[in-house]
Amino acid sequence: MFNHMVEDSEKVDRVFHALSNHTRRGMVRQLSRGECSVGDLAGPADMSFAAASKHVKVLERAGLVNRRVAGRRHLCSLRSEPLREASEWLSFYEKFWADNLDRLAATLEADIAKEQE
Fold it and tell me: What single DSSP character describes residue 37?
C-alpha cells in the first residue's frame, strides 16, 4: 500500500512540476486541440526546436505527452490520464476548503445572529 502511494505521489509530483512552467502549460493547451509537431509547439513561444524539445521531454516524463517520429517530424499528442489524476488530487483539497469555508460561514452567521438578539 505505501509503495503504491509513493509511486502515485511521484507521478503527481512530475505532473505538477511539468505544469509549473507557463510555456509547458501553453503546450498542453495547444495539444488539447490535437496532435502537433515539436516545431508547431515551439512557434507560439518563439523558441528553438531544441528548447521546445526540452520542454516536451519534461511533459513526456510526467506522462502528459506521447511523442512519435514520422520521418523527420516529432509528433506529440496529449495524454489525459495524468491530468485526471492531478485533478482528483486537487478535488480532494477543493472539498476540504469548501467544507471549512462552509463551517466558517455558518459560525459567522451564528455570531451575527447572536449580536442582533
Answer: E
Q: Is 56 helix (H, G, I), strand (E, B) or coil?
A: helix
Cell 455558518: give the residue: 106
Q: Identify whether the C-beta of residue 67 lies closer than 8 Å to the C-beta of residue 79.
A: no
- DSSP H helices, 1-117, are 2-19, 22-31, 38-45, 49-61, 81-116
Residue 64 per-residue DSSP state: S
Mean of the per-residue pLDDT values of the chain: 87
Q: What are the domain boundaries of the chain? A: 2-116
What are the pLDDT digits (tens) for 46-87? Answer: 999 999 999 999 999 999 999 999 999 999 999 999 998 888
Hey, which CATH number is domain 2-116, 3.10.310.10, 1.10.10.10, 1.10.150.530, 2.40.128.50? 1.10.10.10
Reduced to 3 states (helix: H, G, I; strand: E, B; else coil), residue 76 is: strand
Look-up: residue for cell 482528483? Answer: 88
